[in-house]
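Sample intake sheet
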Amino acid sequence: MTENALRVVCLDLEGVLFPEVWIALADKTGIAELRLTTRDIADYNELMRNRISVLDSAGIAFSYVSELIGTLQPLPGAVAFLDHLRRRRQVIIVSDTFYQFLPPITEKLGYPTIFCNTLLIENDRIVDFRLRQQNGKLRVVKALQELGFTVAAAGDSHNDLEMIYAADYGALFRAPDPIRAAHGALPAYSTYEELDAWEGGLR
């Protein structure tokens, strides 16, 4: 078995390969509160409870959100980067998005493997959510390592940090300045070309 077969890359989705869905929804609806992401609020449960409350107050249906997601495109260069990376490494996208959001996203990204969470929907309204597991990103990395894999991980938000630090190789990608400043010991990249050339991580 080659070394490449034992290297798994774990990537975040939104902000790394695909636009932030909630920011796109904020831009579409004009609701500023929906611009908050895990870059702003570290507690994901708090963030999602706030999002669901805002959607309920504004009367925004799940079908509206789903249709909006269908209009979004991968970040420029993301598809080529992901295709190139999957020729060399096994790749798992580990995200705090939801399986109900995925159909148009996975199609546009070439059907990668994605681990994420689940929404509870009633009468076309998002009423709750279920995490796949608590600390899911960290636990994916730990499980892969227990299976004998070397793991490289990259993401842009507070909720990626446990995954990044637990990985054998961890890096920030397109992270905002406060996160980069607070975690200055981590490699930090801004372009797919830089990330692709990450020595030890993806190389």
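Comment: The longest strand covers residues 113-122. The mean pLDDT is 93.
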